[in-house]
Amino acid sequence: MSLTERAIANTEAAAALAEECHRLLNQSATAFEAHQAIAPMLGGRVEGDGATFGFWTPELLEQRIPDGDIFLEVMSPDGPLDLIRSHQEVRFERIYLPVARYEAHCFAAVSGLRAGRRDRLGDFYALVWRDAHDEWHRVLDPLAMSLPFGAFAPAELYDIEAMFAARGDTAYFEGLRREDGPHKFGPPTNILQIHVPTATAGGTLASLTRQFERLSERVATGLPLDPLDEIYLGYDAVQLLPVEPTTVYETGTGFWEELGGDASEVTVSLTRPDTTNWGYDVVISGMGTVNPVLLESGRPDELVDFASVLHNFPTKPKMLVLDVVFGHSDNQGLWALNAHFFGGPNMYGQNLDYKNPAVRAILLEMQRRKVNFGADGVRVDGAQDFKWWDHSTQELRHDDEFLASMSGMVQEVAGTSYRPWFVFEDGRPWPQEDWELSSTYRAVIEGQGDPDVFQWGPLTFAHNTPFIYGYWLSKMWRIKEMLSVGANWISGTANHDTLRRGTQVNPKLNINTRLGETKMDILEKAYDNPAVSMLTYAVFPGVPMDFLNATARANWGFIRNQDDKYGVKVVAEEAISLKWQVDEYSYSVPANFRRLKALGFTTREDLARFFDFLPALVEVTDYDLDHIVRLLNGVEPPLSGPGVFDVAALKVIARAWMDDMHDYCNIANSVSTLDAAQTGYMLALRNFRRANPWLRGNLGARDHFDYLQPVDGRTVFAGYRKGPGGKEVFAITHMEGGATDEFDPLSLPIEGLEGAGWSCTLRTPGIGSDYLSGPIILRDSMGLVFERG
């Protein structure tokens, strides 16, 4: 049947939705409560054999668009549409259906539509309106649950309930069900942070799911583990970098480009979304679903599949933690959402108007829908950016009430109600200049009073560089804070932000050359350091977190290939990472940097020379691209590259760098170089923490932590912790500097070490398994863990 034959508008049902909206807005105690009740009615929803659609459209009210010019647009492909094809031209049948409206809300109800499922494509939809010149305009659905062609294209009607009914972890959630209220998730013992596009060769959620299915089978059958297995194992939780739709290419053709049509049909050029992004350049629209770039099949079911494989992991279920980014929107968000969503520009793009009750309710509804894919926890990015302007005091205030609404939300999966575990990244008073000194990293913890609310700790925040001499003693005051109040902090120095910042450090600073022979070795060991990890897992309180790209000794950086206007400037800022992450051999590998080589940068030296000039010229010309190319063309001897530089060529080079770096950062590239001694040690260390979950607590009166004195040109930390049942742990770690004299760690004058019974259970690589106790010389990045009781 054609779309025209099967789609029937149910005007009575639409009118009932509008009337319910009317009732809620008029009779609710507050406007926010009204919009909280309306938000679940928004978006495209399958209900029985029909579907309903709701849109918040204050812009249509302001522009006085009459009801007779507003319609629901529905499109159905007239022929095959393959979501795993790179490009195709498809003719769509199109119809316009009436809507019911109350003030700033529009509703439609339709029977006969096709809803998408894992094995079939659904109809596409948007709200459209006609102006006085008979020009048509679209209002996209920010609460859509399937966006095969991104947040800037019509959405697909999707049968979410069917997807959830087929989930493979129903028994896991049923086992959490309680009679006395929602289940409350507490913290895991440790976390593995993953960027999906660089975590496997396939770069999708489906390929990551297959990786964990492989691990499950090997663990369940007791097969030997190789280094690739070991870097994924030993974690209680997996935290994905944001999986919501991100920005699109600023110029060029879009993923959905209409080639022509009329009221009954339209031909569309469809391109499979292929942007690369580190995950945080969000546009807010579409936050309730999954970025199509991450979907091998184009079906959002892949996120449910991933949650299921974690929850069904043998020996112990793993928690899934999703990263929610509501603290800002990229400027592209202005293309997808009405202006009422935004509170004004900021350094990332746009602030959101958290005090607008409709915006507030829609954001929370987006969170509810995303977490219902099956997440056990939520990490909130940039919570210090959730601010509103207080006109009475003429200052920005933190919206802690909204943060509490986020962490207080009750989810429902497989009939089980629960409250997820929450982690907030909050460095307030950032961006105040003294924020690194004045931030307590406890504002949300203390403000909410929930014993399970966590924040990122000070050593986890962006500006940490553990490969600069003096770093560890300079952070001693923060370490002391961690020991006393860090039980609800995320700990560890390697994550997506710290590793990125590390690649931006000037290599002429006082770098700890004892970490490696080359800059690449130094950077890799700094963020996958045996002694640092030992300190984090065997001594420090809190919940340790590792970044997969760091533990895999893979590369990482600011990856985003969508920029046109500022793309060259972004690459100029990232150019220094060439010095840290790419040596001559790595560049020469045929699979690496193919695009840049094709542009004329055949060797690393060619590219390095170009990158020596580009950042300086960006600065001195105040990013005047025309001036930059004139100066580049005047360099003697001439630079390698396209021969004659122009603005277009610069932009092509910038795009090539981002695309080549994205490929270069994939974990698959480092598999063959993984060190079994290091990966095996790190897995043993993680299993040690999981066997001793009491270490999460703050240090008590009987515990000890300090550095050995006198310093004598090295920093050596010693930590003693006393646990339940007489359990004792002692760790000694060499953090930086020259070698120690020969000494016996168990003979140090530390209260609690006295007596016999200690056994050495963990040794960093380089210390043989034959060492049990007694005199030893420790060098940079070496350490020991002893246990008793």
From TrEMBL:
Pfam families noted in UniProt: GHL5
InterPro entries recorded: GH, GHL5
UniProt protein name: Uncharacterized protein
Organism whose genome encodes this protein: Profundibacterium mesophilum KAUST100406-0324
